[in-house]
Amino acid sequence: MTDPEGIRKRVRGRLAEQRRLVRSLLDQRMQLQGSLFVRYAVCGKSGCACRQGERHGPYYVVSTRSGGRGRFSYLEHGRVREARALVARSRRFRADLRRLRAVNRELVSLLRRYQDSASRRATRKLGLPVSLPKGQL
Q1: 3-state SS record for 27-92
Q2: Average pLDDT of 49-76?
Q3: Number of other CB atoms surrounding residue 63 within 10 Å
Q4: With CB atoms counted within 10 Å of each terminal CB, which end of the chain scores lower, N or C?
Q5: Global pTM value
Q6: CA 72 to chain centre
Q7: Distance CA 100, CA 24 (A)
Q8: Distances (CA, A) of 134 to 64, 87, 122, 124, 137
Q9: What gap in Å lies between CA 20 and CA 28, rounded to an integer?
């Protein structure tokens, strides 16, 4: 698509998507980067029920990374729903950020194509050849 009006419409569409993604990213600022998992444990007592297969738990654990080191934090049972929502929000945030980068790359490409198309069109209006041989200006 090299006609300037068509490119302009696509640019408007990408700009609208860009605004929507930025609003979404700002709404997802509260997040928890990491993973949430459930852990069951076996204790060291010889007469405990966990030795017959009934393990202790569930214990809810959040796993995070910072500075190249892993860290585990145990959650209270009442905070599990909140932690799940924050971890899901972090995943959506990363996906939206990837999409925003793609939209920005598309916008740059479309704007370059629009600029080339508009300059060719202006050259034609002036009656000049669209491409000049090398060395002639």
Answers
A1: HCCCCCCCEEEEEEECCCCCCCHHHHCCCEEEEEEEEEEECCEEEEEEECHHHHHHHHHHHHHHHH
A2: 87
A3: 13
A4: C
A5: 0.62
A6: 24
A7: 10
A8: 59, 58, 20, 18, 8
A9: 13
